[in-house]
Amino acid sequence: MNQTSELPQFSTLAAFDHHPRTRLVFGVDSLDRIGELGRDLGLKKVLLVTDPGIVQAGHPARAVNILQTAGLAVTIFDKVEENPTTKCVGECVEAARRAGIDSFIAIGGGSAMDTAKGCNFILTNGGRMQDYWGIAKATKPMLPFIAIPTTAGTGSECQSFALIADEKTHEKMACGDPKAAAKIAVLDPKLTLSQPRRVTACTGIDAIAHVVETAVTKRRNAFSLMCAHEGFKLTVPNLPRVFSNPDDLEARGRMQLGAAFAGMAIENSMLGAAHAAANPLTAHYGIIHGQAVGMMLPHVVRFNGKDPDALKAYAELASAPEIACVSDGLDEALEALVRWLEVLLDLAQMPRSLADCGVEQSMIPALAREAAKQWTATFNPRPISEDDFRRLYHAAL
Ligand SMILES: [Zn+2]
After folding, report:
1. How far does the centroid of ligand 1 lie from the alpha carbon of residue 143, in Å?
2. Rounded distance from Cα 154 to ligand 1 centre (Å)
């Protein structure tokens, strides 16, 4: 997380403080290296955090085998839920205490990685999840953590935030601390082959939303832009490829790398209004995160495009994979970007209207009120009010 205050806004020369915390190990069959990597970190008793779907895919059993062969003791916690709540984290903490572990390995999507991070906060620093809402609230050291993503989406493996929903209010709490970041992220494209199409679609759209939002935030800087632009180049041409051929390992690998680079971009420049608008949709209607973000993103891009600096930043982003060319005009580039996003959403077979997902018009004022309070809205390049969110939801209805 970039701690520098009073950065000059809207400048690629904005100050930044990037401290790489996560060793990135990428490659086909890199899962085979986790025994050796665990030993490098001095791990002895691991809690392997995962979910029932991933257990069915067989990845945790393979990981346990590799870790045990390397002499590590492993306990499995396989009760991770989608959009993990404080209750789910609490159960994970119980399992970790019972097993007396010294480290975490998460295999799965963002939910597994976030549950492991959330558990790490409470196990090492005590209290409850709400105590760590915000940045750098943990005062004591945390246990080493290895992240092994099986989706190409959240980028949680490359950033220090755990997104945990309050069990009662369903409000998503972003709990970030440099100590919560994975020590190692193992990116094995083969692990992403097992995703059902719906998961590929929702996580892929989320990854693309991450690069689009990080490329324009108030906090954007030379480092985050490098990650966002590279992430965009890797994901945009390859999401259609994985839809047409789910076993295309090269396209899967590019998606996985792109999602990880997007995570690094988030760590350095935060997110924006599409994520702020999506969170209340997930909280009230259970709409999957990637779908909620995807539905709001084209509307947010058009809204932000009214800001001249954001318009230029979008045009530069769209030029990276040659969706557009800045010299053809900024407005044309913005339109080309929005058209591309809409094509990707159609390929992902996602509903494009909030009404199709059961959202009622009468709920829009309440949703807008909550969206305007989201922390991530404060990083949006164009100031955005509750009224603006109301208009965005109406446009998306
Ligand atoms: Zn997201």
Report:
1. 25
2. 6
